[in-house]
Amino acid sequence: MTTNILLCGVGGQGTLLAGNLISECAMVAGFDVKKSEVHGMAQRGGSVVSHVRFGKVVHSPLIRKGEGDILLAFEQLEALRWAEFIKPKGTIIVGTQKILPMTVSAGNAVYPGDIITTLEKMSFHVTAVDALETAKGLGNAKCVNVVLLGLLANQLGKIEKEIWLEVLEDKIPQKLLELNMKAFEAGWVMA
């Protein structure tokens, strides 16, 4: 059986790094892994998406609409934007952070209200956490992605925790390793 994880966020949130770490962990755990990413205007705060699929044999890197098992969203509006890719009763893990798109900042659009409730009404299993506040409490707001990754890793349950920790140790620069290990552990206990 293939596990389909869609990651989404805004440029600069570490969406691509999180996708790479999930892929690496799945490979170390012995799964066939395929990954694809889209990061068009990421440097200007645009949408960033990464598809990660792993299982015994995986033929395509892309997740079709309605076939995703888990959506890992680093920002609320991005969660709403990509929810159609998750199957009914699928899981959405979302950071409660709001990053206003340019259209909202310019006054040409309105940021939707109560996105978490909207997602819950769409029949998904939603876990919403203030990962930004957790990251700030650890000393660096930029480790939001690893906080949410720790939560995902625990909820996923298909890859041993030791593998996640080994991959983090291997892939995260030494000067940021201690912070990211703490971020992963903080997310792990949120599950």
Break the fold down into its secondary structure elements and pairings.
Blueprint: E1 3-10, H1 15-28, E2 32-38, E3 47-55, E4 68-73, H2 76-82, E5 86-95, H3 102-105, H4 115-121, E6 125-129, H5 131-138, H6 144-156, H7 161-171, H8 174-188
Parallel strand pairs: 1-4, 4-5, 5-6
Antiparallel strand pairs: 1-3, 2-3
Helix pairs in contact: 1-7, 2-4, 5-6, 5-8, 6-8
Describe this structure in words.
By secondary structure, the protein is of the alpha/beta class. The protein has a single domain, classed as Pyruvate-ferredoxin Oxidoreductase, domain 3. The chain contains eight helices and six strands; from the N terminus they run E-H-E-E-E-H-E-H-H-E-H-H-H-H. The protein has helices at 15-28, 76-82, 102-105, 115-121, 131-138, 144-156, 161-171, 174-188; strands at 3-10, 32-38, 47-55, 68-73, 86-95, 125-129. Helix 1 packs across helix 7, helix 5 (131-138) crosses helix 6 and helix 6 packs across helix 8.
